[in-house]
């Protein structure tokens, strides 16, 4: 990956489970926080999109867990956008703790309106995503 | 309390934290599931309320934790409505595991519209709540 | 799938997001509740496993979202176990609302000890899972 | 309050509900993140406490909701510790968005060991909390 967006977060008690590790579904939350910040970094703001009747929804998500994160860990999420389509885009995300790989995610998102119909992504927006955090 | 609404649930991994107990904020989720089922039991349906531009929001909540619930526990939530006001109502809830008291909650809810203004509760609805699960 | 385990749940406010649909990570919680109940149905109890220093962890999870679930929906989760390996097993899960497909999941779980080493599944246990909720 | 600890966070999709506001239980998560960072700021580290068989648990929590936070909001949490007792301490927390008050919390925490017995707080630690983020 060249040029990913970088986002860091700390693991709090709310993120853990009785196995003393991060509960697996929470990696999807972490990944979405990172995608949100990547969008914001290029001027993409979710409430503004909603005002335009555009919602980004997850179509599919593959989560691969390689090691366990724990309470108090600082995790870094590297987000890499693939070349967007007309109404959907694909994102590769890697979660690391220092130099250890914790998890990877492959996420497909669609842009829909409030009736659930696919809506074309703003071309300038899609282009920026790919220029800033894509580029393979 | 006479006449509370009774709701049971099981504690799953998602509800616990690295201390091997139920994460404290999750008691508020459990309590809301129970209130939702109490409303449903008298014909109150949240999406129907939303179609009438009525939303129930929590104004305040006091949570008192007396013992810890753990993975796999079955918890019973006893919900008791106090005499409703025009646009708000108060609820007392008790969470028990067999005969042990786990937590108590005192919750104040308001009925508002989508602009955030208080809206009068349907009188019949409020009356039913009190008749069925109140009555002190 | 023949012979899946069936589990039902209702969508509460806690499960939804500002798009008025179920937040995508919550399908992973729902799927785990269903797997937990499938294990319980054949006598598998997570705290008992933990007393034997055995923990079930998710190695990978593929979530495919086909339609949106909403507040108040009743969802049914059909869980189907594949032939277990020595220390891991695979699960196919389908989430439906009435006859509409909401999401599918393919989950790989491993059995590890508290040091994170793979531990052999109890053969009788693995066999029961497959006999009851597998069988292809 | 003089001298509170200050912590900021952004509201993500995971924090909201179908009413398009922050789900009420999530204010308790936000408040705990802030307390965790206040402890860290004086050298208090939850995993280190756990290695000493000390766990901080919430005994009670009063949440007062004054306005609704929404997707994308930046919230500031001001945390103020009261004079600690031997095995418990009290915290006042205020959540604001710019200059608007969103919620207040009054939280009582206890320090217990893994058997659930109250354990005395390290005197130096308790003193530091009060000196840095208390002091009324």
Can you describe what's shown?
Four copies of one chain form a homotetramer. The mean pLDDT of chain A is 91. Chain A has helices at 26-41, 46-51, 123-133; strands at 5-10, 55-65, 74-81, 88-97, 100-112. Chain A has a five-stranded antiparallel beta sheet. Chain A is built from three helices and five strands, in the order βααββββα. Helix content of chain A is 24%, strand content 35%. Chains in contact: A-B, A-C, A-D, B-C, B-D, C-D. At the A-C interface, α1 and β2 of A face α1 and β2 of C. β2 of chain B pairs antiparallel with β2 of chain D, so a sheet runs across the interface.
Please render the helix and strand layout as text:
The structure is a homotetramer of 136-residue chains.
Chain A: E1 5-10, H1 26-41, H2 46-51, E2 55-65, E3 74-81, E4 88-97, E5 100-112, H3 123-133
Antiparallel strand pairs in A: 1-3, 2-5, 3-4, 4-5
């Amino acid at each position: 990956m060249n040029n990913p967006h970088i986002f860091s977060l700390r693991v709090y008690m709310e993120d853990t489970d009785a196995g003393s590790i991060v509960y697996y579904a929470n990696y999807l939350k972490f990944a979405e926080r990172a995608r949100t910040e990547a969008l914001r970094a290029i001027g993409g703001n979710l409430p503004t999109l909603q005002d335009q009747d555009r919602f980004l929804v997850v179509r599919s998500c593959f989560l691969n867990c390689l090691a366990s994160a724990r309470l108090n860990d600082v995790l870094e999420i590297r987000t890499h956008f693939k070349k967007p389509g007309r109404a959907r885009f694909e994102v590769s995300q890697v979660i690391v703790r220092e130099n250890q790989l914790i998890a990877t995610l492959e996420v497909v998102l669609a842009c829909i309106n409030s009736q659930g119909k696919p809506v074309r992504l703003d071309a300038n927006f899609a282009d920026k995503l790919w220029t800033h955090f894509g580029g393979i």
